[in-house]
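Severity: low
Component: inverse-folding endpoint
Summary: output formatting inconsistent between runs
Steps to reproduce: submit the following structure tokens with default settings.
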């Protein structure tokens, strides 16, 4: 069974930085597309960023473009989200997700890690 575990969330002041990590276990995810999503209180889950299996293809939501950087380390089976210039609007539970090559939608999800940005 594939399991994803996020870590690195916390409380930061506006303008600060955090780096989230997503560790995979159960099997290697080298062939999986992976991404980050977030869900703020009272809102639906939204896309944040995604990265291809090779790490060479990345895409970001307009709201985080230029501030967040997604990356992965296949050798460590880990994905990262570097978040800089954080804003109060970034406050949410952040989820790691993975999509197997045959899947249409993301089919594996982590439990989420809380990010709170104070103003």
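Observed output (run 2 of 3):
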């Amino acid at each position: 069974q594939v399991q994803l575990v996020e870590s690195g969330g916390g409380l930061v002041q506006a303008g600060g930085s955090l780096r989230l990590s997503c560790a995979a276990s159960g099997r290697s995810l080298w062939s999986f597309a992976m991404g980050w999503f977030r869900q703020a209180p009272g809102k639906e889950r939204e896309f944040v960023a995604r990265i291809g299996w090779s790490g060479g293809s990345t895409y970001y939501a307009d709201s985080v473009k230029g501030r967040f950087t997604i990356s992965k380390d296949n050798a460590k089976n880990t994905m990262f989200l570097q978040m800089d210039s954080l804003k109060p609007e970034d406050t949410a539970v952040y989820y790691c997700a993975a999509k197997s090559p045959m899947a249409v939608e993301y089919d594996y999800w982590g439990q989420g890690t809380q990010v709170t940005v104070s103003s």
